[in-house]
Design goal:
It is a single chain. The chain is about 35% helix and about 20% strand. The protein is an alpha/beta fold. The protein folds into two domains: about 170 residues, Response regulator (Rossmann fold), CATH 3.40.50; about 150 residues, Response regulator (Rossmann fold), CATH 3.40.50. The strands form two sheets. Strands 1, 2, 3, 4, 5, 6 and 7 form a seven-stranded mixed sheet that branches. Strands 9-8-10-11-12-13-14 form a seven-stranded mixed sheet, sandwiched between helices. Strand 8, helix 5 and strand 9 form a beta-alpha-beta unit.
Length: about 325
């Protein structure tokens, strides 16, 4: 089934053939349980592949004693909570034992439909600020999971940008000011900017035309660079942002490694797939009687730096050996 709502792709996996059947441990293998999965990116997207690769890997090591099957998928379109409401109601009406949500927006939409079906979210930016949980230590409701949010990441992005492009004195920060985590990340960048001698210009990520105008206007002056924070809008317009950075010869640091895989300069952030691997352990525990309210939200444990040397050469940048030595992946 394909339903188009605007331009943004969202994936929904729910019920029937579109659920992952799991045996809830060796002694219960004959009793199959279902996991509903709500994903926010296309399966051919580098970030969108993280759930379909990470969850089976996590399940395989969780002791569930099962072999998940990758289901058929129903691509939806652009939209936030309103666009997700109908498929979420479908999940709520199914016989799903637990729902895995990719990111905070998907988890919020699911909670609007059900406050009883257990939800495990992966890679949610700010679950407390988004109202998904009462606190990280005691979620208190039907949702828990794993977050990508850490204020100090903002300072790390600017540090990396200055290390790889020391001449930068101005940085345009692409963010989502409607997201509390975006406000916090920008605050962290602001805190360290004076020590690096960098003037910041925050820009809200919205539609493609506005992004193009903002980056073109910023590139009109010299010694500039880009910082692209964690936000769904940036992921949606990833290829455009990368192309604009190349066109205007702007060094850029990104929160997601998929930007660098697609031609961006450098990234620093949590390993997206690791969040889904870890989420599988919570799915296991909930299927065996644990309550989301009692499972604390966990922060990332694995961060990665990815560098694209081809892009660095195109920008005329020499990557310092110290930065190369710390990189988890170097794209030639």
């Amino acid at each position: 089934m394909t339903v188009t709502i605007g331009r943004r792709e969202l994936l929904v996996v729910l019920g029937g053939a579109a659920a992952w059947p799991l045996a809830a441990r060796a002694q219960q293998r004959e009793k199959m349980r279902r996991i509903g999965v709500l994903m926010n990116l296309s399966p051919d997207d580098a970030e969108g592949q993280a759930p379909s690769r990470g969850v089976p890997a996590g399940v395989a090591g969780s002791g569930l004693g099962c072999r998940p099957q990758c289901p058929d998928r129903a691509p939806l379109g652009r939209g936030r909570h309103r666009a997700l409401s109908q498929p979420c109601r479908g999940i709520g009406a199914s016989r799903t034992g637990v729902i895995l949500a990719a990111g905070g927006i998907a988890a919020q939409a699911l909670q609007r439909v059900s406050r009883t079906i257990p939800i495990v979210f992966a890679n949610a930016a700010d679950p407390v600020g988004a109202g998904l949980v009462a606190s990280l230590a005691r979620p208190g409701g039907n949702a828990t999971g794993f977050t990508t949010f850490e204020f100090s990441m903002g300072g790390k992005w600017l540090e990396l940008l200055k290390q790889i492009a020391p001449g930068i004195t101005r940085a345009e920060v692409l963010r989502d000011s409607s997201n509390l985590s975006g406000i916090g990340e920008f605050g962290a960048i602001q805190a360290v900017a004076p020590s690096f001698g960098v003037e910041l210009l925050p820009v809200d990520v919205s539609n493609a035309d506005e992004i193009e105008r903002a980056i073109a206007a910023f590139a009109g002056a010299s010694n500039g660079g880009l910082i692209v924070t964690q936000n769904a809008g940036a992921l949606l317009h990833r290829k455009l942002i990368i192309a604009l950075a190349a066109r205007h010869r702007l060094p850029a640091v990104y929160a997601y490694s998929s930007f660098v895989v697609d031609g961006g300069l450098i990234s620093y952030g949590p390993d997206s797939m690791d969040g889904y691997r870890r989420a599988a352990s919570y799915v296991d525990r909930i299927l065996n009687g644990a309550k989301p309210a009692d499972l604390p939200v966990q922060a990332p444990v694995k961060y990665e730096t990815v560098i694209n040397l081809k892009t660095a050469r195109a920008l005329g940048l020499d990557v310092p050996p110290t930065v190369l030595a710390r990189a988890d992946e170097v794209i030639e």
